[in-house]
Amino acid sequence: MIIDGRAVAARIRAELLSRTARFFENTGRYPTLAVVLIGDDPASGIYVRNKFKACAEAGITCKDVRLPASVSEEETENTVRGLAKDEEVDGILVQLPLPAHLNQERILAEVPTEKDVDGFSAQNIGALALGKQGQVACTPLGVMELLKAYHIETRGKRAVVVGRSNIVGKPMALLLLNADATVTVCHSRTQNLKEECLKADILVAATGRANLITADMVKEGATVIDVGINRVDGKLCGDVDFENVQKKAAYITPVPGGVGPMTVAMLLVNVCNAAEMRHK
Ligand code: NAD
Predict the structure, then answer these.
(1) Mean of the per-residue pLDDT values of the chain
(2) pLDDT tier, 65 (very low <50, low <70, confident <90, very high otherwise)
């Protein structure tokens, strides 16, 4: 079965409308996301535009904060600090990547934990590792929602996550672990990747390597989640050889239309959660 990320994301986004309306009734304003975009990277510009559109449709107000590529570190930190203090801002998203001269770690450290809707802060990652409530990175959170939507059991299942980045692989592994899966994390130095992948009931690929996961690496009846976004000959594809793997997998996400739409939907959910928590 092909997992329809667009449909699940649309349902989640539609459900948010009543939450944002209730928030407005209680507070006189809508949940608010501030997006800081530095420089004029065209891809980042498109991502931000998509986020604004999705926010507007869900009843979330956006604050569009633009800084020139030449902005200083101090000025950037001051801008984020100002948003941190702004009572009417519930979530802060600093669009990555930053221009090379800026220190990403120092700038992100200015985002307070309760407004960290990307779930990138050390506190939020620590909360996830401890199995406590906090904001969780949108993409892995979206994967968990897809598993839930299709009633795919995680308890006691073998999950293999290929990729160990701080924004996808690691939080993905922690979420699956918290959901009682037996988790293996593979990466570029893993020996016998095929052998590890073949054990997976749930296989998550998050590497950015087109066609890394081939049919001979997938167990019959496994669930295959493809987080990768790659462009091959101008065409969008994931990390999984979809055509051949779909013949073996019980469930599989396509690219596009799988995990991607969930990332934006979960950002909106995180903004609503942050707004409601702050209001409480
Ligand atoms: P990253 O480059 O930070 O990390 C890639 C990981 O893959 C690393 O941990 C590396 O060890 C591992 N890896 C690389 N080559 C490998 C190999 N041959 N065998 C095994 N492991 C290997 O990337 P990221 O930020 O984690 O993103 C991963 C992919 O997911 C990218 O394609 C990115 O565009 C995509 N992505 C998609 C969404 C979405 O919304 N769908 C969101 C974030 C990232």
Answers:
(1) 97
(2) very high
Tokens in use for 17?
Answer: 């409308």
DSSP-assigned states of every residue in 39-74? S--HHHHHHHHHHHHHHHHHT-EEEEEEE-TT--HH
Residues designated as active site: 51, 95, 118
Among 220, 248, 251, residue whose Cα is nearest residue 152: 251
What is the rounded distance in angstroms from the CA atom of residue 50 to the CA atom of residue 111?
22
Class for the domain spanning 28-112: alpha beta
Alpha-carbon dihedral 127, 133, 136, 138, rounded to 10 degrees: 170
**Superfamily name with CATH number, domain 138-261:** NAD(P)-binding Rossmann-like Domain (3.40.50.720)
Q: How far is the CA of 81 from the centre of ligand 1 (A)?
A: 30
Ligand 1, CB cutoff 6 Å, lining residues? 139, 162-165, 167-169, 186-188, 190, 193, 206-209, 212, 227-230, 259-260, 263
Q: How is the chain split into domains, by residue range?
A: 28-112, 138-261
Pairing state between β 61-67 and 91-94:
unpaired
Convert the pLDDT of each residue in 112-121 to its tens digit: 999 999 999 9
C-alpha dist (Å) from residue 208 to 56, 101, 133, 164, 200: 30, 25, 29, 12, 20
Which residue's alpha carbon is at the smallest distance from atom 40 of ligand 1?
260
**In a mutational test of the pocket of ligand 1, which residue from 194, 217, 229 has the highest number of ligand atoms less than 8 Å from its CB?**
229
